[in-house]
Amino acid sequence: MPMGRFTERVAAYGRALGGWVRRPTDGRWWLFIGTGLLLLLILAVKSPTGFDLRVGQVASRDIQAPRPVVNRVATEQLREQAAREAVRNAADDPANYRINATVAIQASDAVQDLYARLADFLPSQETPAGQDQDAAPNAAPAQPTETQVVEAVRLLAEAGVPLPASTVRAVLQGGPRELERLAQVSRETVEQVLRTRRVPTEELEAVRGQVGEFLPDQGLSEAQRRLVGLVVAANLRPNLILDPQAVQRVESQARRSVPEVMVQQGQMIVRRGDVATAETVQILQDLGVLRPDRPYRSWAGLALAAFGLVALLGIAIHQFRPALSRDVKQLGLLSLVVGLVATLARIGSVVGWEGAPYLIPVALGSMLVTILVDSQVAVLTTLVTALLTGIMTGFSLEPAVVAVTSGLTAVFSVSRASQRSDVTRAGFLVGAAALVTILALGLARGTSALVPLAWVGLVNGLISSVGTLGLLPYLETAFSITSSIRLLELANPNQPLLRRLLMEAPGTYHHSIMVGNLAEAAAEATGGDSLLVRVGALYHDIGKIRRPYFFVENQFSGENPHDKIAPSLSTLIIVSHVRDGLELAREYGLPPMVVDFIAQHHGTDLVRYFYNKALENNRGGTVEEKDFRYPGPKPQTRETAILMLADGVEATVRSLNRPTPGRIEGVVRRSIKGRLESGQLDSSELTLKDLDKIAGAFVKVLNGVYHTRVEYPERLVKEMQARRA
């Protein structure tokens, strides 16, 4: 490829990359990379006060414990020693043994084998040729030979069943059926004894002596009873085996009985010149004063953790809040909050005090995100920051659990916060939740050092609430976000701008109050933000402060200055209250979402009265309709559109001579229809169904204001006054 073409292609790739970087939506990628790198640096930072010491190295200085800590190595050694001793002693305790069913089966098999071998010495049961076997039932039983008896006696003696020849002969004379019955009785008896009775080695002879108690009372001759009894006794054996579960319980109990070995504050861990042992290094790690190495694998793991958590948060936001995932400004706020909490977590992890990890204010981030963004996003942020807390505190479970509990409590506590005192109350709730969690963890794990630190949870809650109150105004300003708390502050009648409106344009002030009532009812009926629309209504006409007497609601003397000026000039004055309102809004620092109500509450509507008046005055001339329209823009949101409708309806109904319910409803619906047909609602989110709900809400509020009153007769009024006198 020629060098010139190669250079052109590289330049084209560079331009494409630059265009990709400059695209507004792709700022999210830079935010992702920046947040991931920030978390990686926070995770990787080393303790500035730590020690570099490894197993086998010589300590260069004396190291004392800055706080109490459990010596896990020594504790585990003592517990292992106690467990071994308990297992050894368990073998001497009969309670730890159970009956082994296998012994009974083996003994039964041995009995069956003995009888099978004994059957070989039974006398022959052959009948004479030509005679049926059942033809002579009363024939004398066959007699065993002397050799058969001698061999049977020897067999039984070898099996531990010493019987005289006469007894053996009597048994053999019974034939195979009788011998099989004796075998069955012997098997059942030996199994019954070994399955139901504990037979330790030292009691074996005693149990053998009691075999007669287990034999059936009837159906056995004396010789058969002696044979069965001796066979059963000879095959009895110890049937106890050490129970593994019982031994495990003994071992666990022994381990739990050993208390934790504590290294007290100020206790010497290692002296200068001593060789570091595994126990020494473990103590330093648990204290958090040992500087960890950062090999490449560790860096890779931290990078995966940092970018993985950021990606997890981003994917969850994209899944549950797609609109938020496209708002770079709010994503930047989340990045800042996560970075702030992670920084505080790192500081808490390196402080040489055992209670510091439980002071990490994860709830601070949860409160800020709940108030400024959304409670669902706050839950996701809480889980991510809690995981970061666990990682930075040495992968400890307890601080992470406390972080999750306090963070979720914060989300639920401020999700409906309407004033700053609610945040303060939430701080106490967070502190109580953290306190109970620390107590529960300490009691559940049997960690004596954790229970006295429960009070730290209360401090955590207070730090979180104070930090939230302190940071909230700055974050609102920096990211142009208006929280519900800020809106309620703006709705306070003591706000300087509202005070000016009340004193300088009182008619407009009361008009704004009425419009706010109408708009709030309509917003609630259609699922809009009722608080936002009320605040917008309070400030939508603040521009009338500049020239209040040019607006009819402030003309108390009955004189109208518009009668003396041209319609075009009157239109300029009327329309200018929007521009004046925007200037006052910037002067007093009103948030953008409130400023939108000022700019959009008339849209591009026509100042119809002065337009018609101009047409009458200039019948032969040309009147441009655009000169008599508001500059706009049209309402862009549900709330600003509701305010436009409420503003027009309130002014129109106020002009009615007899505002009956029927006339009020007619005026309301005509006013809404006129705004719809003129295209003023085209950019809003309102549907026809919403407009019907809005009309119903307006009519309900207005009927309550303009309801009929009882007219008292003059005579009755005088009598009532006389009685009071």
From TrEMBL:
MF annotations from Gene Ontology: hydrolase activity
Domain HD/PDEase: 504-661
SMART domains with a match to the protein in the record: HDc (SM00471)
TM region positions: 27-45, 299-320, 332-351, 358-379, 391-414, 426-444, 450-475
Pfam families registered for this protein in UniProt: 7TM-7TMR_HD, 7TMR-HDED, HD
InterPro entries documented for this protein: HD/PDEase_dom, HD_domain, HDIG_dom, Metal-dep_PHydrolase_7TM_extra, Metal-dep_PHydrolase_7TM_intra, PgpH_phosphodiesterase
Domain of life: Bacteria
Extent of the signal sequence: none
Region entry Disordered, spans: 125-146
Biased composition (Low complexity): 128-144
UniProt KW keywords: Hydrolase, Membrane, Transmembrane, Transmembrane helix
Protein name: Phosphohydrolase
